[in-house]
């Protein structure tokens, strides 16, 4: 059985880099916005949610890239005329 086409690790990382950097900036903002003496309780939930969103985006992007790679590996069909010739 032939190996399934794979997504490019380097392209995936490059495409996700901006989202990762934006999210990390938002993490820093959440930590800085927490009240003194309550840094963990004042930022933990927001930071958790930010990472959950990033995890979802990264997983969806990776799945889509793998599906796209698999579709690109198949040759295009020859269209309806080819099927009619085969039927005759």
Explained architecture:
- It is built from three helices and no strands.
- It is rod-shaped.
- Helix 1 (9-33) packs antiparallel against helix 2 (39-73).
- It has a domain at 37-65.
- Helices cover 77% and strands 0% of the residues.
- The model has no long low-confidence stretch (mean pLDDT 90).
- It is mainly alpha-helical and 88 residues long.
- It has helices spanning 9-33, 39-73, 80-87.
Mean pLDDT over the full residue set? 90
User: What does the radius of gyration come to?
Assistant: 22 Å
Report the count of strand segments. Answer: 0
End-to-end span in angstroms?
A: 32 Å
Structural class designation? mainly alpha
In brief:
The chain has helices at residues 9-33, 39-73, 80-87. The chain has 88 residues and is mostly helical.
Topology summary:
Elements: H1 9-33, H2 39-73, H3 80-87
List the defining traits of the structure above:
about 90 residues; mainly alpha; 3 helices
